[in-house]
Amino acid sequence: MKLTKPQQQAIRYSGRNLQLIACAGSGKTEVVARRVAHLLTRRRARLKPENIIAFTFTNKAAAELKERILARTKDALGEMPIGAAEMYVGTIHGFCQELLKSEVPKYLKHEPLDAIRQKLYVDRNSKKTGLTECKAANGRPLRRYVDTERYTAALSALREDDIQRRYLRDCSVAKVGLPLYCAQTDDDGYLDFSGLLDLAAQELDKNADLRKRLAKRIKYVIVDEYQDVNPVQERLIKHLHDLGAGLCVVGDDDQTIYQWRGSAVDNILTFEDRYPDVQQIRLQDNFRSSVGVIETASRFVGSIDDRLPKSMTFGGSQELEKGDIVALSFDTPAQEASYIADTIKSLRGIRFTDRGESRGLAWSDMAILLRSVRNNGSIIAEALAKAGIPFVVAGIANLFEAPEADAARLLFHYISGHPIGHGKNKRNAPERDSVRNAWKSSSLGTPARKLADALTYAEGIRDGVAQESDGLPSIQAVFLRFLELIQLREENVADSRGQAALFNLGRFSEAITDWETVHFADQTWSSFHGFAAFLYYDGDDTYGEGSQDTAYVTPDAVQITTVHQAKGREWPVVFLPALLRNRFPSQLRKSGLWQVVPRKAFENADRYDASESDERRLFYVAMTRSMKFLHMTWAPVPTNQLYKRKSKFWDECLRLSMSRGECRATKVDHV
């Protein structure tokens, strides 16, 4: 890789504090890896691996960065550095967990409780964790399931943000709920992510011996995705800096997409003013996308008022050709979905140059990015399935768009043997024939006799649940045994969907693990009832659409994902459908947080509310995932007055692209 001058400067910078303003596709991971390798191999003031900490936003990003660091260091030294395992590369939550376990004996055996399991835990222990002991701002008692997401968001915000305590005197979540929740999680041996951050910050505040030990060991701190840091994380970073460590923050304010859950863009905007001796270096060359994508995206995001000065430029990686950028309108969402399916089939196998090497486009080179998969993904998934195109839906929130995952959900409702829901939402338990038809429709290549054997096994478990039998196998064990009995094999799945089908069933297994981790103490037969109800009525709320996808392996299948989940990724072909007014940008609503905690208690509370600037940043992230082909489409939803008009973002991008002659735009009446 030939380095640009700014990249070289960033790698070899010898001062204390460095701010890398890294535009989309600028090769920041490579630059950071080479900078760490430089710190480990330079002749003067060489650091040891244990002296360096690198914070990433996800474990997946950490694995990639550490692998890259070790490779570049080995390139420089000819061998792996001594003590490489002592270098911390991971999330800030993971660092805090290690710190608490090593420094505070009472937390040695505590286990982390991620956001998903936290919601399940609060639902299971709604009284003990304070949920049903609290009231909303209007005096209404909080309810299990209905208010769980707001309640857990408030618990996090109260510990992660800069709070003016005088405004919390009449807030039952702060006065009653939070103490009950913290006491219960402590008794059960759990630390949620907010607790990890808050307690570690408190420990650094009060523990002088700990500060001395960290000051002796930690000499350099790197923070990736700095634009998404929240106040308590910034407090921890400032602690480490004030102990004497050098600091390198990497990020792009234009890609701030998590303010709605507490991150503060002001951290990156004001870094130079708050820390001493800061050198700013701009990594502005985009090595990912074509000049058409780059210039359209740059001009689009440039209308945000308060942003760091930068100018994303073409790095020469992709040639722009006529028809690469397309803006189309359709009469119906079904036409729009058919167009996407037809275009995917036509693009598969065409020649594509990827960083100097030519190859044919695969299914996995194409992604469909939506503001909300839950609201707009079904019709697209149906069109792909009808066309025989393998696809996966990122994350678990929208997993049941995949037929095999929906069949698995139906299986466990059958095993539970109980109706779930109430009133118009009531679902009776399915009959055996319905479950058989669902698995058969999944086209997994299962022999009829083997499917019959598996259903007979499931029927036996169902009988045991009905009889409230002791000694039933776990939900996970039942699921794995069922898959074993149907003789699931990748090569037997129709339409080359083997990898995608196994990927989706693996995600279903993750949902089982989340449930059983929290409900491990339940009687097994009752857990089957609860799990079935959870899959149909609580799963969507528990697995939100805004978190990043953490899968380490991607099958050869088209990705259907939200824009939030696409952050940090790239594809040669990107579709941005459902570009509708009130969908993208979404309706600008106030945060649900204010229903349970007072707004005035939070400094800079506006960032929790939806804003057009935040929606604009999110759309910028969506566009810059594309390496070459970018298809922006919309169609009115005939049954909903809110979604009958095109997005202003679609219009704006159309004008920007057509002003350069880059974009093909038309109205398609027939596909």
Low-confidence stretches: 666-671
Can you list the strand order of the major beta sheet? 15-16-14-17-18-11-19
Beginning-to-end CA distance, first to last residue: 43 Å
Structural class: alpha/beta
CATH homologous superfamily assignment of the largest domain: P-loop containing nucleotide triphosphate hydrolases
Average pLDDT, rounded to a whole number, is: 91
CATH level-3 fold name of the largest domain: Rossmann fold
Radius of gyration: 26 Å
Q: Level of helix content?
A: 40-55%
How many domains comprise the coordinates? 4
Q: Which architecture name of the largest domain does CATH use?
A: 3-Layer(aba) Sandwich
Biggest sheet descriptor: 7 strands, parallel
CATH class placement of the largest domain: Alpha Beta
The oligomerization state is: single chain
Q: Give the count of helical stretches.
A: 25
For the secondary structure, the number of strands is 19
Task: Tell me what portion of residues adopts beta-strand conformation.
Answer: 5-15%
Strand and helix layout:
Layout: H1 5-12, E1 17-22, H2 28-41, E2 52-56, H3 59-77, E3 88-91, H4 92-103, E4 111-113, H5 115-124, H6 148-160, H7 172-188, E5 190-192, H8 193-206, H9 208-217, E6 220-223, H10 231-242, E7 246-251, H11 266-269, H12 271-274, E8 278-283, E9 285-286, H13 291-301, E10 313-314, E11 325-330, H14 333-347, E12 351-354, E13 357-360, E14 366-370, H15 373-376, H16 378-386, E15 391-393, H17 403-416, H18 432-441, H19 448-466, H20 475-485, H21 498-518, H22 524-542, E16 558-562, H23 563-566, E17 571-576, H24 612-623, E18 626-634, H25 648-658, E19 663-668
Parallel strand pairs: 1-7, 1-8, 2-3, 2-6, 4-5, 6-7, 9-10, 11-18, 11-19, 14-16, 14-17, 15-16, 17-18
Antiparallel strand pairs: 12-13
